[in-house]
Amino acid sequence: MSFSSDQGHSESLLKGDYRPPKPTTLQLGLAILICLPVPLTVLADPYIDQVLEADETSIGSPQSAADQAAQTGRKLIGTELTLYRESESGRSGGWEQGIGVTWSQETLNHGILSLDASGRYQNSILRNGRQPTRESVLFRQDELPIAAGMTLSIAAGDTLARSNSLLANSYRQKLSSTLVRGLSTVIEDEKRTLTLTSGEIGSLNGFQTSGYINRSGWLTGADYDHLLSDDLRLGLGVWHVENSDRVEDHTTFAGALQLGGQTDDDTHQLHWLGDDQGNLGSWIDSDQQLGRWRHRYGLFWLEPGLLWTDQQIGNDRQGGYWQGDFRSFREALSLGVDYLQTNLDDDPLLIGATNLNMFARYNYQLRRKLSVGGLLSINQQNFSEAGQGYRDTYTLEGFTRFDNRLGTSNFRLTHSLEQASLEDGHLSTLTWDQEWPQLQGNHLRSTLALNRIHEAGDQRTEISWGVLYDRSLSETLTLDADLISNRTQADLANDLRSLDSNLGLLWRLAPALTLRANLNWSRNRTRPLGFPADKTNRRQLFITLQYSGTSGAAPLVLGRNRGKGGSGRISGTVFFDEDRDGVRSPGEKIASNVQLILDGRFRRTTDSNGYFEFWPVHAGEHQLHIAEELLPLPWILSEQMQSQVSVKVRQDTSLEIPLVTITD
Predict the structure, then answer these.
(1) Neighbours of 201 (CB within 10 A)
(2) I want to staple 217 with a disulfide (CB 3.0 to 4.6 A). Which of 108, 168, 201, 620 is the partner?
(3) Which H or E run includes 512?
(4) Which of 67-81, 373-387, 434-448 has the lowest mean pLDDT?
(5) Nearest to 431 by CA among 455, 413, 404
(6) What is the DSSP letter of 127?
């Protein structure tokens, strides 16, 4: 069975006459649409041996195109009012007021439109001589279909200039992103992503509401990610910085190649980095699953002076690492070794070091409610600077976790021994974390830690404890509070005490309106040897009134989602082709009440003019059939017709479908 626009059995009936672009939607789902019963208009000519009864096609009530057009997609609108106040002993209080607006609109074929805007005002105490008002604005249009299987995303305003995940997020080395006020464009399909970014370098600042602050400099970059095959992925990037007061003008090139990770659990990555000053860097990361063991290992080397945008990068170092993790039903074992060397050029103005770290961690599940484990680690450091020498640290730790009538208890005992060229030291720590049973909606957690430290001829005792509490007072009101205390007593140093408390309240005033208030109070006391105690108190108040409302529904898109983005329309007419030439000639009648099926699921019935329409339909290839068992005899669909129909984004596919007689 097929549909074509053949003239004389040679031209395809599938026309290329597309209408102007129409509103479109995000690919958010499929809707099951079924047709309303349509009475058949019996044709007097040509002769029909059998007619269709109305109830034979009564298989449900489809959503009309007009109804679907009324669905403009989901909409979100929110606003936020914030207030921050602080006071501290010995100085005037500061305050900040802010407002934020969020808007998002889903569309049929133009992606998701969104806007985030905020502004704040700070008094002179907080702004430290800076501009009192700051603002932040970001407009986005995400996943706009621009071609078959290809989408465009645009961000204008205060946005992050970031590399793709392959370049930026390896296991051992990270490449930081930079906030810019400018423009970012992303073009992507199923296998490729191209990102272009340019803007003024800045940062966001504020206690409750963020505002943009210019940090000097301009950043421009391009980033490319390509899935070459199921198990081979390539990432490339180039970034240029100029007029920055943090780094010199430079251009940095980055690249990465990943083998595996799509169809198996093993991945291997090769990264390289270089700037136009001649500095280079490279690292290798591997992740392999061998039975119950997972192995992660790699090597890295980054020359001194290597630059990456305006961000800090761990340059001037080389080394390698390995970590193996074993998992079974009851056991978990982790082993690892990490070697690091710095000051590769032996710069006399820098302190170079070699660092070797080894560890073993084991955990055993004795029973369903009881587990025990331990940790052994060795860290050895050697310094190149005269007089620094070495520092070796040996740590032994035991821990247990068990569930009991008092809730869940975690105990941890740690002892560390430090041997150094200057002076030895040791540390002992006992920690108890407890999650108590919930009683009538009260949720309580506590922690207690005791540290004994001996170093530099002094002995210190540190005691800290904390309590965290939350409770739902009603369906609309939630309370949370915490109290944390720290105390340090030393033989030769200052005695320190601190107490931090927080009280929070979340009140749902209406389904879309919430009020959040937090009050923090901190008290610190320092008692230097031989001097009176110095006390400071600080109070902070955070208040947020937030409205967030949603409306609309996701547009119902017909057909199988081929993952290409966007939608179009399929429409046309069905007619009785008496001369079997595939073209509707003058005098040939239209066929009403004929049932058409899209992708075996979505049905439409021709009207009294033989017209049918499927809209909106996911872009891509689809199968369109006619329910031939319901056709009036002696008419059938020509065997020469093709059932595959191609739908393009924001365009119409127009069809003329001929029916021929069995006797011809």
Answers:
(1) 24
(2) 201
(3) none
(4) 67-81
(5) 413
(6) H
Q: How far apart are CA 307 and CA 274, in angstroms?
A: 8
Cis ω before 616 (30° cut-off from 0):
yes
- Tokens 């272009």, located at residue: 196
**If you write DSSP's letter for every residue of 61-76 in order, what string do you get?**
-PPPHHHHHH----EE
Q: What pLDDT score was predicted for residue 633?
A: 81
Question: H or E stretch including 12?
Answer: none
Rounded to whole angstroms, the Cα distance separating 315 from 319 reads 12
Tell me the whole-structure pTM to 2 decimals: 0.77
What does DSSP assign to residue 244? -
Cα dist. 619→13, 63, 192, 342 in Å? 19, 19, 19, 55
Q: Is the dihedral of CA 225, 227, 231, 234 positive or negative?
A: negative
Could you give the CA distance from residue 81 to residue 590 in angstroms, rounded to a whole number? 62
Q: What pLDDT digit, counting tens, does each position of 150-203 carry? A: 899 999 999 999 899 899 888 888 899 999 999 999 999 889 999 999 999 999
Tokens of 152: 């465009």
pLDDT tens for 24-45 read 333 333 232 223 333 333 333 3
Sign of CA dihedral 3, 8, 10, 14: negative
Kindly write down the DSSP assignment for every residue of 571-608, as one continuous string.
EEEEEE-TT-SSS--TTPPB--S-EEEETTTEEEE--T
Nearest Cα to Cα of residue 52 among 36, 44, 68, 41: 41
Query: Among 65, 52, 30, 55, which Cα is nearest to 601's?
Result: 30
Structure token pair of residue 60:
């449900």
Pick from 322, 427, 336, 321: nearest CA to 375 = 336
User: How far is it between the farthest Cα atoms of the chain?
Assistant: 116
Choose among 448, 524, 527: nearest CA to 490. 527
Q: Which amino acid is at 454?
A: H
Per the structure block, which two tokens stand in for 163? 């590399």
Measured distance CA(542)–CA(273) in Å, rounded: 44
Cβ burial 251-278 (10 Å sphere, 16+ → b, else e): bbebbbbbebbeeeebbbbbbebbbeee
Task: Indicate if the pLDDT at residue 589 is higher than 60.
Answer: yes
Beta-carbon contacts of residue 587 (< 8 Å; ≥ 6 apart): none
Token digits for 498? 């601190």
The pair of three-digit structure tokens given for residue 8, joined into one six-digit string? 């004389």
What pLDDT sits at residue 388? 67
DSSP annotation of 101 reads: E
* DSSP summary character for residue 305: T
Rg (CA), the chain: 35
Residue 403 has pLDDT above 90, yes or no: yes
